[in-house]
Amino acid sequence: MIALQNAIDAISLGAVYALAALGIGLIFSIMRLINFAHGELIMLGGFTLYALAGQPYLVMGLAAIIVVAIAALGMERVAFRPLRRANPATLLIASFAVSYLVQHIVLLVFGSRPMGVDFLAQLGQSIEFGGLRVPGLQLAAIIITLVLLTALALFFRHAPTGVQMRAAAEDFTMARLVGVRANRVIAAAFAISGVLASFVSLFLVAQTGSVSYKMGISMVLIAFVASVIGGMGSLIGAALGGFLVGLVSVSLQAYLPVDLRPYRDAFVFLAFIAFLLWRPQGIMFRRADRERV
Amino acid sequence: MTRIPKEWQTPLLLIAILVAVALLGSLAAPAMQRTVTEALVKLTVVIGLYIFVGNSGVFSFGHIAFMAIGGYISAILTILPAKKHVALKLPLLLEAAQLPGVLALLIAVAAAGLIAFLIALPFMRLKGIALPMATFALLVIVYVVSLNWTAVTGGRQALVGLPRYTNIWVGVAAAAVALLVAAAYGTTRHGLALRCSRESEVAAAATGIDVARERLIAFVISAAIVAMGGVLFAHFLGTMTANTFYLDLTFVTLTMLVVGGMRSLTGACAGVAVVSIVSELFRTIERGIDLGGFTLEAPPGLQEIALALVLLVILLTRPHGLVGDWELTWSAFAKKSERGE
């Protein structure tokens, strides 16, 4: 029974990690940018909820999604579009700068102390399933993630922009040669990445009931790990990586000796390094990403 | 002056400038002296970072971890035993130890170098973006451990009572040592081989350069210098907290390196100078300036915003940094003065 309970915890945590990792993986697959500022998109979603506290939950949620998507588009336009030809390391540094910039603008406006927000607090109550206790929030996280993953899969398979995005991820230059419009595809990817980030912030705020200007950092670090494990650039891989990191975190939390539990994150990152050494290309390795000479 | 080889002119000229800055600084008010000292310690760290990042072209997000390691080792070896007894739970031998600062510094640097060697053995086999990601993981691991290993690091409590011996001249000495080590490494065949691999990893491998081995050598030297900076930073602040050595400091030091130009030693120094001046300027504004009657005051956070904007503007307009590949040499200097006449 405890094992089943842990499994549910792992899946729901993994679902949120998967959403965060997908947002990062999507951008990386198209423009080789590891977007450290993705955490700040999550944080901006949180602060939108804070700014609109007291409104109906639906309004708060929709506003967060729209604001974050616009913020993602803004980041792309101002910082990443001019750097499109830069190498991945430079892009990573640039995203570090954007992240630092956005964090401290929020610090300047809202201050450094965490602030309470009431958003879907009643979802914290558990639903009983024959002895199993499933908090509504976990259930919601799993269902919403599954819906979003299905929607994304359909989008990539059937929508013209989705097909173009896959083509761009496969070989960006070739895609442009056959008429894919780079600016539009990349902007669309950022918008989707923003929407995914906003759902992560909805979940985080509902779970913790607070926002702070540093709330995105730990999530983005985990999402990094998940998307690299999945195989940078593979979207299925990113989602799988998210679930895998969720599984490892919950297992460590459950089965590590009590003395070592505070070090859980250190073990997660240690496992990550071990994984990199064992299989640096990730679970899902795409031929297109092979280094060419 | 022309007898000195070109690659040695750069560090010697830079050291001369540092001594001049320090002389000016030592005449200034105590607050300004502290600012200059902090900049010199950060310069030591950035030069250490340059030895690996600049020569190999591979970004490391994990070097601040070696600052933390060096700082904690030196803290444990220098704090009064009575204070350690209250704050920490160390083995008796370590608790009783109270070494002179220099000895603690040497031990800390050697230990950090050894740890760096053990880490680099597996890490340097990684290729592409996997290596920077692994260094990120290293930073997180060291942070989580120092935040929770209460018996040794004090955990969430700040570790206090470090002898505050880092002054301007200690800072100058450390930066000078770092500059000389960086220049010396750069002239060895290992330095040349690593810079070759920076331009083209494949071509370097094809000419028989063992890229992983060259990176390992640079990583260890670089980590040792960064650890020295960490020790001096700890003895500058007088306290150690895990949060000091995490993402913010990583961002600031990488900004310094990239803004100045990570491909040259002069660039590393220029970056530290520019970023320190910008930071100090905005820190002053945050504190409030009296402009004959009304006070110009800015909320906290402005300094960091300015820093991020400087980095973004440099990345967008001068991707190789302010100085690019240029190194300060006597001949460049002389030519300029000739033209001036």
Q: Helices, strands, pairings?
A:
The complex is a heterodimer of chains A (293) and B (341).
Chain A (H helix, E strand, L loop, with lengths): L1 H30 L6 H14 L5 H24 L7 H23 L4 E2 L9 E4 L2 E4 H23 L1 H11 L1 H6 L4 H27 L1 E2 L3 H16 L4 H21 L8 H15 L15
Helix pairs in contact in A: 1-5, 1-6, 1-8, 1-9, 1-10, 2-3, 2-4, 2-8, 2-9, 3-8, 5-6, 6-8, 9-10, 10-11
Chain B lengths: L5 H22 L2 H27 L6 H16 L2 H7 L4 H5 L4 H23 L6 H19 L1 H4 L5 E2 L7 H20 L1 H11 L1 H6 L4 H27 L1 E2 L6 H14 L4 H23 L1 E3 L2 E3 L5 H16 L12 H11 L1
Antiparallel strand pairs in B: 1-2, 3-4
Helix pairs in contact in B: 1-2, 1-9, 2-9, 2-12, 2-13, 2-14, 3-6, 3-7, 3-12, 6-12, 9-12, 10-12, 13-14, 13-15, 14-15
Q: Characteristics of this structure?
A:
heterodimer, A: 293 residues, mainly alpha, ABC transporter involved in vitamin B12 uptake, BtuC, two-stranded antiparallel sheet, two-stranded antiparallel ribbon, 11 helices, 72% helix, B: 341 residues, 16 helices
- Total DSSP E strands of chain B: 4
Summarize the main sheet of chain B. Answer: 2 strands, antiparallel
Tally of helical segments of chain A: 11
Distance between the termini of chain A: 53 Å
CATH class of chain A: Mainly Alpha
What is the spatial order of strands in the main beta sheet of chain B?
A: 1-2
Q: How large, in whole angstroms, is the Cα Rg of chain B?
A: 21 Å
Largest interface: A-B, 41 and 42 residues
Q: What do these coordinates show?
A:
The complex is a heterodimer of chains A (293) and B (341). Chain A is mostly helical. Chain A has one domain: ABC transporter involved in vitamin B12 uptake, BtuC. Chain A is 72% helix and 4% strand. Chain A is globular and about 60 Å long. The mean pLDDT of chain A is 89. By secondary structure, chain B is mostly helical. Chain B contains 16 helices and 4 strands. In chain B, the strands form 2 sheets. In chain B, strands 1-2 form a two-stranded antiparallel sheet. The two termini of chain B are 20 Å apart. The relative contact order of chain B is 0.17. The mean pLDDT of chain B is 91. At the A-B interface, helix 4, helix 9 and helix 11 of A face helix 7, helix 13 and helix 15 of B.
